[in-house]
Amino acid sequence: MTNIHSSAAEMAAALSKNETTSVELTKLHLDQISKVDGKVHAFLHVDTEGALAQAAEVDAKRASGEQISPLAGVPLALKDVLTQKGIPTTAGSKILEGWRPPYDSTVVSKLKAAGVVILGKTNMDEFAMGSSTENSAYGTTQNPWDLSRIPGGSGGGSAAALASFQAPLAIGSDTGGSIRQPAALTGTVGVKPTYGGVSRYGVIAYSSSLDQIGPCARTVLDTALLHEVIAGHDERDSTSINAPVPQVVAAAKKLDVKGMKIGVIKELNGAGFQAGVIERFNESLDLLVANGAEIVEVSCPNFEYALAAYYLIAPSEASSNLARFDSMRYGLRVGDDGKRGAEEVMSITREAGFGKEVKRRIILGTYALSSGYYDAFYGSAQKVRTLVKQDFDAAFQMADVLVSPVTPTTAFKIGEKSDDPVAMYLSDIATIPVNMAGIGGMSLPCGLAAEDGLPVGFQIMSPVMQDDRMYRVGATLEAALVSKWGKPILANVPDLGGK
Ligand code: GLN
Questions:
Q1: Alpha helix positions (H), 268-369
Q2: Interatomic CA distance for residues 498 and 37, integer angstroms
Q3: What are the catalytic residues?
Q4: What pLDDT is recorded for position 499?
Q5: Which residue has the higher pLDDT, 371 or 184?
Q6: Does domain 8-303+386-492 have CATH number 2.40.50.140?
Q7: Residue 61: which H helix or E strand, with range?
Q8: Which of 125, 321, 429 most suits a substitution to test ligand 1, by most atoms within 8 Å of the C-beta?
Q9: Per residue in 66-89, pLDDT tens?
């Protein structure tokens, strides 16, 4: 029997055997949302009517014998950073309150074409700036493992929806870790594909040279299935790669790592990391060895500068991208009393509509780009980016994939770091280099830390457009871990009243 605890692949199989219908599955999930989301706050908007209509359409197509895609009829939660025609889209910001996009992002078009049922939009840090979802203008999301803790960010809503069985699939965006970090802290799987592998058309831009959309789910195979639905070249995104989509579903089914070389990044495996995180990480390395992989140590000396460089590049691009929120074109307008000039209305609106962290980054980015400082800050940061990429290139000469823990710690308490931006930024120390180099990165759960019983994430990185490698290693490790535990990690998540 499929239920909300099943994987997306299991739900898809039950649908294809007519053991259930998409309407039935969608209702089960809407029901779970109404039972638990008051506690979790994963969703900003639930599209009950739209989801049921989409589900009914898929059921009708199936009944008529029409060829439909593998995930047709399976529900999904969409990060509120993607446009969906007619559906409120805020990117977690007050400045976009009430905005209903007139068009679908490419990812949403692909989901709709594949018959994936979109349940609603998930909570996130404002404009994807943050590591805890506490920067959302609409209140924080709670971690289903412990409601007093953050679910990670910026895509905490999507990850929390998966971990509380409100959806089996979700979409995230990852500029410096926003898919992988919440996945790690909630015991779910999240993948940042190669930059350019998934279209950014219709994504509300944060830092365009780093932003990447990717799949989130509770198993590696489910992320692979979703990856193949959303990936591929798009003429409407000038940075989209025109090459065949890596065969990630086949890779996720291989369950074999014999002879593969796994590179452990020396700089991301020790100082500054919680003991329980390192312990679980090392155990997973042993399992990979037991499955025939070879471990090699690699060094990436320039990673030391990656975080600092990221916090110049990302705010610089953000300061330019966010200029479009000027009160004239979208959403909020404050102070337009008929007497004030346009510039004054813009400035009053931006003051009222942007949160503290967004303002901090706009100021930082504008400063870093201003003449006289450009070379010293932005220019140097770009040089670091090249060095980080060179470190990866050298490391991939020695290994097929690279690995590290995803986050230095398990989920921290709500409020613990909200007044200390630098402490918050450090949550992404292990995920940021991947975005700087444009390569692929996956987070999968590798156990619970001994000291607090909270999930730990294992990161796998693969070279540009070789995303299949991380799926192959991830699925093999997942199978080994689940067989060792005797049950999936999420069997341990507290019952929030929906089971
Ligand atoms: N936490 C990082 C930031 O605040 C990364 C966010 C993201 O990947 N969108 O910029």
A1: 275-290, 306-321, 342-353, 356-369
A2: 10
A3: 79, 154, 178
A4: 46
A5: 184
A6: no
A7: helix 48-63
A8: 125
A9: 988 999 999 999 999 999 999 999
